[in-house]
Design goal:
Radius of gyration: 21 Å
Number of domains: 2
CATH class of the largest domain: Alpha Beta
CATH superfamily of the largest domain: MutM-like, N-terminal
Structural class: alpha+beta
Order of helices and strands: HEHEEEEEEEHEHHHHEE
Length: 323
């Protein structure tokens, strides 16, 4: 499943094309892509056509496009997208139809050429091989803390007081902020983590505690912090949790620089290009290879119907609790 870096790469690619753009037409090729939408395909297309997209925003693994005009009931709304296991959002003009395209949205960008000629319409394709991803038009609610709901890139400077900035789709409101969010509360994360008796990796994967982190970046961050995935979170000193948080941010930042992690053609940016952070992975998928830090062979162990990758020396297994 795409994690924060892969989703942020998509958001950043969408931003210049859709911010201020007007929706010209909507075609739903497969209604399975609307599992999160409250209504049929005709409702989705009708409610979206003709409206203006204010920006492209992300929290954790969710992307949403706030709509400038309110819905029929007067409430603020947004187009919400979740990529699921294999979802992609591609942009292009007069490109061949992508395989597994589920939704096509034609938009008229706000910009113009140097001679003042309006830009040509852009086709936004929602592509999903496994159909676990989805799009929906959803009502927006104010953020609990009054801070901007998620990361919105350069439009933050152009629209610092826009109402949509402090509103979040109801489908995303239960998701915690991610570590790269300026409003992320480090102290709150430390307190929540140290109240959990479960292993620290389970805490990192809990989207109600911290969002955007999946198996790849959890393994990489735990290796960097020299913590075993099963180390009970409530037995970690505050300093260790803060160190882990620092390593999480460092790993995510490096992955963003590389365009995310792509092991196959499913994880791509809006132009269909793959990221290359996979070339810098230290432990994830590196079983059988030497640890870059100490030379010990990296091992892969079963974890929550998936796997964890560790260095047995750098990340020693925790001792059993005394009874």
């Amino acid at each position: 499943m795409p994690e924060l870096p892969e989703v942020e790469v998509v958001r950043a690619g969408l931003e210049p094309a859709v911010s201020g753009a007007r929706v010209l037409a909507v075609h739903v090729a497969d209604e399975r892509a609307l599992t999160r939408h409250d209504g049929p395909a005709e409702d989705f297309a009708h409610r979206l056509t003709g409206r203006t997209i204010a920006a492209a925003v992300r929290r954790g693994k969710f992307i949403w496009l706030p709509l400038a005009e309110p819905g029929a009931d007067g409430r603020a709304e947004a187009l919400v997208a979740h990529l699921g296991m294999s979802g992609q959002i591609l942009l292009g003009r007069d490109r061949p139809a992508a395989k597994h395209r589920r939704i096509v949205i034609d938009v008229q960008p706000r910009g113009s050429d140097r001679d003042g000629t309006p830009e040509s319409p852009v086709e936004l394709e929602f592509v999903d091989q496994r159909t676990f991803g989805s799009m929906a038009i959803d009502a927006m609610v104010p953020t609990i803390d009054g801070a901007p709901a998620g990361f919105a890139g350069v439009v933050d400077d152009r629209q610092p007081d826009a109402p949509w900035r402090r509103s979040i789709p109801t489908q995303v409101s239960h998701i915690a902020r991610d570590p790269l969010d300026p409003a992320f509360d480090d102290d709150r994360f430390v307190q929540m983590a140290r109240k959990r008796s479960s292993g620290i990796k389970r805490v990192l994967l809990d989207q109600g505690v911290v969002s955007g982190i999946g198996n790849i970046y959890a393994d990489e961050s735990l290796w960097a912090a020299k913590l075993h995935y099963d180390r009970p979170a409530d037995r970690l000193p505050r300093a260790s949790v803060l160190l882990l948080l620092h390593e999480v941010r460092s790993v995510l930042a490096r992955a963003l620089e590389d365009g995310g992690t792509s092991f196959d053609a499913q994880y791509v940016n809006v132009n269909g290009q793959s990221g290359y952070f996979s070339q810098r992975l230290n432990v994830y998928g590196q079983q059988g290879k030497p640890c870059p830090r100490c030379g010990t062979t990296i091992v892969r162990e079963a974890f929550m119907n998936r796997s964890s990758h560790i260095c047995p020396v750098c990340q020693p297994r925790p001792r059993a609790r005394r009874r």
